[in-house]
Write a structure and sequence with these properties.
The complex is a heterodimer of chains A (353) and B (612).
Chain A (H helix, E strand, L loop, with lengths): L1 H13 L6 E6 L10 E7 L2 E6 L2 E6 L2 E5 L10 E6 L6 E5 L2 E6 L2 E5 L11 E7 L2 E6 L2 E6 L5 E4 L11 E6 L3 E6 L3 E6 L4 E5 L21 E7 L2 E6 L2 E5 L4 E4 L11 E6 L5 E5 L2 E5 L4 E6 L6 E6 L5 E5 L9 E7 L2 E6 L2 E7 L8
Chain B lengths: L15 E2 L13 E6 L6 E5 L4 E5 L6 E6 L4 E6 L5 E6 L4 E6 L5 E6 L4 E6 L5 E6 L4 E6 L4 E7 L4 E7 L2 E6 L12 E8 L4 E9 L7 E3 L6 E8 L14 E8 L6 E5 L10 E6 L5 E6 L4 E6 H9 L17 E6 L4 E6 L5 E6 L4 E6 L4 E7 L8 H10 L11 H4 L9 E3 L9 E3 L21 H5 L1 H8 L6 H13 L16 H11 L15 H4 L10 E2 L13 E2 L21 H6 L15 H11 L3
Antiparallel strand pairs in B: 1-5, 2-3, 3-4, 4-5, 6-7, 7-8, 8-9, 10-11, 11-12, 12-13, 14-15, 15-16, 16-17, 18-19, 19-20, 20-21, 22-23, 23-24, 24-25, 26-27, 27-28, 28-29, 30-31, 32-33
Helix pairs in contact in B: 2-6, 7-10
The chains are: A mainly beta (353), B alpha+beta (612).
Chain lengths: 353, 612
Amino acid sequence: MRLAVFFATIGLLGAAELPRFRWENFTTAQGLPDNRVYSVCADGDKIWAGTDNGLALYQNGKWRVFTPADGLAHRAVLYLALDKQTHDLWIATMGGLSRYSGGRFDTFSQLNSGLPNDVVYSVATHGDFVWVATAAGGSRLNKRTGEWSLFNERNTPMYEIWTYSVTAAEDKVYYAVWGGGVLEYDVKTERWKDYNDPDGETEMVLFKDQGLIHEITTSVSYVNKVLWVATYFGASRYDGRNWRNFLEKDSGLPSNFLNQVKSVDGTRTWFSTDKGLAYFDGEQWATYRPALDTHAPEMLVRNAAGETSRLAVDTAPAHNYIFGVELQGDDIWVATAKGLSHGIRIKQETGKQ
Amino acid sequence: MRSGVIIGLAVLGALLLSGQPSTKPGRYPSPIDVALAPDGSRLYVVCEGTDELVAADPVTLAVAARVRVGHRPRGIALSPDGSRIYVTNSWSDTVTELDRASLAVTRTLPAGFEPIGLTVDARGQILYVANRLSNDVSVIDLASGSEIKRLAGGRGASYLAAGGAHVYVTHIYPNAGKFRTEPESEITRIETGQSTVDARLRLHNVAGVSHVALSRDGRLGIAAQLRPKNLVPLAHVAHGWAFGDSLAVFGEDVGGVVQLPLDEMERYFSLPFGVAIAPDKSRAYLTASGSDEVAIVDLKRLVAAARSPERDTLANDLSASARYVLARVPVGRNPRGIALSNDGARLYIANHLDDTVSVMDTAAGRITGTIALGGPGVVDPQRRGERLFYSSKFSFQRQFGCANCHLDSTFDGLAWDLEPDGFGVDIVDNRAIEDVSETAPFKWNGGNPDLYTECGPRTERFFFRSQGIRDADLSDLIAYIGSIPLRPNRYRLPSGELTPAQERGKGVFERVRRKDGSPIPEENRCSFCHSGKYYTNRQLADVGTGKPTDRSPLLDVPHLTNVAYSAPYLHDGSARSLEEIWTVFNPKDTHGVTNDLVKDELNDLIEYLKTL
């Protein structure tokens, strides 16, 4: 008992600047169409959730559900991206790409448009372009002309075409290619470059920070010219000059199996793993989850010295298996395999928030 | 990329003309829209035919000045303080900004493909422009003159009105929908705080929505619209109503959207276009561009009808308009845009095909004056034909004219069941008619060898259900149709060169071998049937797209000029996009060899087709 208190106290001191949350969880009991929530997206006060059985909108305390009967491309919604200019929602589904705009769904499929494949894993918008990751390569829609440009093994260094995630910014676009590393598109030169695991397609890590940690990439996040990559074998960070890799054994990551990475500013970054939600502030790590054994809520902290502690908390995300996160001001929304969680930030009296 | 702002050289870039009629011989002013200065001192008339903005004295009815703007100007809006005038140039894809005091052109602003209508937000900071061919709305920051974003509109986005915290946008072509279902349109609502689309007001069974107007308090909106009956044989025109000429009324005063007819039994209000609402919200005015009339609508009665328990059934009730239409006043030919004086006492009506503006005393409900805008001084056969094209006077009970389906001399985005051969038999997509005089034969089955047959006996018997077209009139009509020019193609580079994707697509279009090296039979090559200047060999072909409900699988090879704009595709409109022609309707390579293509190559082919 005394030992537990000691750890908690150490943890609190070390975690003074790490965000803490009160978690509220949503499931079908509260109106979600399915508990398997693949993606979540915030638009001001509105929250969109992409589930295995439809798209859901949380507004004014109520859920509203959209299905293919409403015009949605497919019931399985894998990813959501908000066009910050127009506030249209782009929806990646297992049956095509949909746009929700002012109550109207427009659907793009491999039959009615230039979309290369109906299995759409991810979508990102930037300016007049919509970038799409599909099971048959990447593609780009020019919203002004309607032109679709396809990117695959025929015109890029992509040797796998299973694109799993895309992130777009003013200067670069990155694709996570499942089994094919990372593909970079330079917006100015319109040239492609690939980043691969220097150890090849093995799970060995011979030279830890020499390059991308693994070829099986699942997510990319590009903020402030810093690229983060999630793989099934750890996370990688690339600042344009140097790579740094993060593994369960030598970081605060609760698992090497990552579904998503989402960086706030290039340094502060969220990791969606199969063993909880992780956060890294550049020095310290935190993990939020129901404990793997007891399922009791817990918050794990790993300080800059590598010391680990467990904090006593009252609430936790709905499940350990995390698909993705979305930030809403100080709050966070977490898509899990068994519900959607809203992390309401607990304001701390000292330290930065 | 288009530059953010093309700075116009004031005065130098503008040609400020005298108040005399246009000096260009042979061009008719063709007024299309009007607006009044806030102080009522000037009336501004957009003359589509002469590329001019004309300023007139609304009291003396004299033309005071003419200013050259861009090509095919269509819409006009004034800044809230009245200091600036904005005019859309539909074929230049720009907006001309003028200083209202001097009428000098101050800037030329960028817009999308074929900008039509426009409006300025209440703060005078943002200009919204509806782009017909890019189906979107440009949001232009007036301080910088740059287009800051595009919003997805309805297909053929065309007209706007600002009211309260919103801008409302209509569109003339229906949104894409399932084959053989009622057309769906919308009024797109933009929230002006963030300039985002926050709602789309559904217009079920509606296509061809024209102008929209808002009451000053923003609580009541009215849009002019058509309810086409394209799913039943047009033979039923004899039983009444090929088109429901109607309006959509919406807003807080109504509580939702209600469609109400403007037609009367045996007295149709053909092709409603312009709308204005009186400042005191007592009346609304709508033009019938096919019937050459202005309807005066009592708004209290209109709102009462729109709030009545039977409101959802009134759209198909030919007796309903008697509840709220007070009068129908004859005006000039093809009346289009209208504007009210600040006190609502006078209504100005742009008579598109008379080159005049009518002035109506709204209290008396009669025309009290006319502003002559000039023109060649003679009415040539093409102009006479244009008048016939837009007039409904030839059809049974004057229900509709050519322009009801060929909106603004284009198309309507609908597939029709035209002939009296049973429900759902021989469905035909409505094709565009620009630059078609050398593309005979006509009709999807190629049954009409020339435009005389196509527009004469066929139209009389199958469309209009009348025998009313004289030979001389028919000659004029043909002269006009033959003169309809091709709109500029927006997908070609200014240099005339093709982009790499378009070039690759051209290679697919012109290829003579499959990718495995085997030859493609001549008759199965894209460029064999789609050959020549108009990309048609003017023959019949069976490309495997016929349906069991078609009388023959042999179809006229359509011209492909500006094919990008005229969805849906195939003879019956069953392909909603160019892609579907091959991804859905060409399983056996009978409509060109395409099944050996990868998706990249099909996309390239489509990029090339868009340049034709």
